[in-house]
Automatic annotation (TrEMBL):
Plays a role in cell envelope biogenesis, maintenance of cell envelope integrity and membrane homeostasis. InterPro entries: YciB (IPR006008). The chain crosses the membrane at residues 7-31, 51-68, 80-96, 134-152, 164-182. It is a multi-pass membrane protein. Keywords: Cell inner membrane, Cell membrane, Membrane, Transmembrane, Transmembrane helix. Belongs to the YciB family. It holds the Pfam family IspA. It comes from the Bacteria. This is Inner membrane-spanning protein YciB. One of its GO terms (cellular component) is plasma membrane.
Length: 189
């Protein structure tokens, strides 16, 4: 269910785009993002920072897309989001000495261990976490650049399909690489 809530704005954007147009799809993206943030607030008592960022960018760029009736603004959304994510990984690591990828991975692994009632705390070596942090930051910058390249060199239909399926595909492959990298540190059971 959380997967559906996480990707609901994107799913609705794609669906409405295919049946209506980019401007209606953009409006639905804004409303779905608002619903997503509201749902998270009322079910968890807090909203993840990334959802606030996605919502703000959707409102600003989506609002400009609708106001000026120009799809160029919404095309920049993914580029800005991924550039922010890449920058956050680099800045947190090299300015604040905090590896966000390590924090995220250990949080996920700890919650899995708790669900399986495994009391062993899973820790990942700094070297591997630093490599993964760099990998994800480079990937995010690459996706940011690739999105804007596709947006301006291909049709709107191609860009929407790339945004929905291409970016999810790239992220899935990166997750597989990450899982492969950390699997040797997971408990046997």
């Amino acid at each position: 269910m959380s997967f559906l809530i996480e990707y609901l704005p994107l799913i609705l954007f794609f669906t409405v785009y295919k049946f209506v147009d980019i401007f209606w799809a953009t409006g639905v993206l804004i409303v779905a993002s608002l619903i997503q943030v509201t749902h998270q607030y009322f079910t968890k008592g807090e909203v993840a920072k990334r959802h606030w960022i996605f919502l703000a960018i959707a409102i600003i760029l989506g609002g400009m897309t609708i106001l000026f009736h120009d799809e160029q603004f919404i095309k920049w959304k993914a580029t800005i989001v991924y550039a922010i994510l890449g920058s956050a990984l680099i800045v947190s690591k090299y300015l604040f000495n905090k590896n966000l990828v390590k924090t995220a991975l250990e949080g996920v692994l700890s919650s899995v261990a708790e669900k399986e009632q495994n009391q062993n705390k899973i820790t990942l070596p700094e070297k591997d976490c630093d490599q993964l942090n760099l990998f994800w930051s480079v990937l995010f910058f690459f996706i940011a650049a690739l999105n804007i390249y596709v947006a301006y060199n291909f049709s709107l239909d191609f860009w929407v399909n790339f945004k929905v399926f291409g970016l999810i595909g790239l992220t899935f492959v990166a997750l597989l690489f990450t899982m492969f990298k950390i699997q040797k540190y997971l408990p046997e059971d």
